[in-house]
């Protein structure tokens, strides 16, 4: 199905927002303005945006420690995100979650998760809720190739099939689980073959191509929303930087890093829409400028925002009070 001009602009805007946001996070982290650790999504923009493109706020996603891109792809506010990453009181989670624990339930974002393989069990639970309520909605579990080896992921895949829930498993295979190559860590011939062994379909998709990801995700959504149970995608991506900001990447050669960047999904998207006459270069350049201003504003407001007040905020949100 041909996407409209507005759809194409929305897709490009979200990919560029992830790129500029993550580049700025890298800069602010190096300057000491971001506490803790940060794991950026640079290079994988087409994957997250393609998966989330046709989701609604009522559909749910569970994320990973590399979750900024998933948040932006799902429509989460970048100002609230930047404040949260900077540990500020008016961040999305009160400045208490930081980079690896951003959540926004109003957008169906169940949270980034520092627990390796933490999203699939959560997403299966959300999908079971959708099935029980007959909502017609789905839940998506983002998982990396490293986390795909976790027992929690295997249990979630099996339970999703047994309960026939509308859960979509998005395995982002960027080649490395932290510093270990997937070719070493995965004992199966491929991630997709292993996933299919649990009894659900799994497509292998070029995760650096927005159009390929969005089309595959559309098939997954049609399958899940029709009541046919879970579906999986192995999204083959390229991680531009290391596992975390500051990772020297001694386990990757300069040639490999250069090859990864040659697959940059944003120039690829631009070339395709410009050559097909679907968008004008002026449209894309305007989006670049607007997003740059938006991220710059988010950083400036984040730097000026107050941190949590220990006297008032230390014990707030620790317990949930039920009526």
Overview of this protein structure:
The chain has one domain: Thiamin diphosphate (ThDP)-binding fold, Pyr/PP domains (Rossmann fold), CATH 3.40.50. With 323 residues, the protein is an alpha/beta fold. The protein contains 13 helices and 7 strands. The longest helix has 26 residues, at 5-30. 46% of the residues are buried. It is globular, with a radius of gyration of 19 Å. The strands form 2 sheets. It has a 5-stranded parallel sheet with strand order 1-2-3-7-6, sandwiched between helices. The model has no long low-confidence stretch (mean pLDDT 95). It has helices at 5-30, 45-52, 68-73, 78-85, 119-133, 151-163, 182-185, 191-196, 210-225, 254-261, 265-275, 281-304, 310-313; strands at 60-62, 139-144, 167-173, 176-177, 180-181, 202-206, 231-236. α1 (5-30) packs antiparallel against α11 and α5 (119-133) runs parallel beside α6. Helices cover 46% and strands 10% of the residues.
What's the number of domains? 1
Radius of gyration: 19 Å
In order across it, which strands form the biggest sheet? 1-2-3-7-6
Helicity level: 40-55%
Number of helices: 13
For this structure, what is the CATH class?
Answer: Alpha Beta
CATH topology: Rossmann fold
Strand content: 5-15%
CATH architecture assignment name = 3-Layer(aba) Sandwich
CATH superfamily: Thiamin diphosphate (ThDP)-binding fold, Pyr/PP domains
Runs in which pLDDT lies below 50 for 5 or more consecutive residues are none
Number of strands: 7
Quick one: overall form? globular
H/E element order: HHEHHHEHEEEHHEHEHHHH
Structural class: alpha/beta
User: What's the average pLDDT?
Assistant: 95
| Major sheet characteristics | 5 strands, parallel
Distance between the termini: 47 Å
């Amino acid at each position: 199905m041909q996407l409209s001009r507005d759809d194409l602009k929305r897709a490009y805007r979200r990919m560029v927002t992830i790129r500029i946001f993550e580049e700025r996070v890298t800069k602010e982290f190096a300057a000491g303005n971001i506490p803790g650790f940060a794991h950026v999504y640079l290079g994988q923009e087409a994957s997250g945006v393609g998966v989330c493109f046709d989701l609604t706020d009522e559909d749910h996603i569970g994320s990973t420690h590399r979750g900024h891109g998933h948040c932006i792809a799902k429509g989460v506010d970048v100002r609230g995100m930047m404040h949260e990453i900077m540990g500020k009181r008016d961040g999305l989670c009160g400045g208490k979650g930081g980079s690896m624990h951003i959540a926004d339930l109003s957008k169906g974002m169940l949270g980034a998760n520092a627990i390796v393989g933490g999203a699939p069990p959560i997403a299966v639970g959300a999908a079971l809720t959708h099935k029980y309520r007959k909502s017609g909605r789905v839940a998506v579990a983002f998982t990396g190739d490293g986390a795909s080896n976790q027992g929690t992921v295997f249990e979630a895949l099996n339970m999703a099939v047994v309960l026939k829930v509308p859960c979509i498993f998005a395995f982002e295979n960027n080649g490395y689980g932290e510093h270990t190559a997937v070719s070493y860590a995965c004992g199966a011939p491929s991630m997709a073959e292993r996933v299919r062994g649990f009894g659900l379909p799994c497509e292998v998709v070029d995760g650096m191509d927005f159009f390929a990801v969005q089309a595959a995700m559309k098939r997954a959504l049609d399958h899940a929303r029709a009541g046919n149970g879970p579906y999986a995608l192995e999204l083959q991506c390229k991680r531009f930087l290391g596992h975390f900001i500051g990772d020297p990447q001694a386990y990757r050669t300069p040639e490999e890093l250069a090859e990864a960047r040659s697959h940059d999904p944003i120039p690829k998207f631009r070339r395709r829409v410009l050559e097909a006459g679907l968008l004008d270069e002026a449209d894309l350049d305007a989006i670049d400028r607007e997003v740059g201003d938006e991220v710059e504003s988010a950083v400036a407001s984040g730097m000026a925002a107050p941190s949590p007040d220990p006297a008032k905020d230390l014990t707030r949100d620790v317990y949930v009070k039920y009526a």
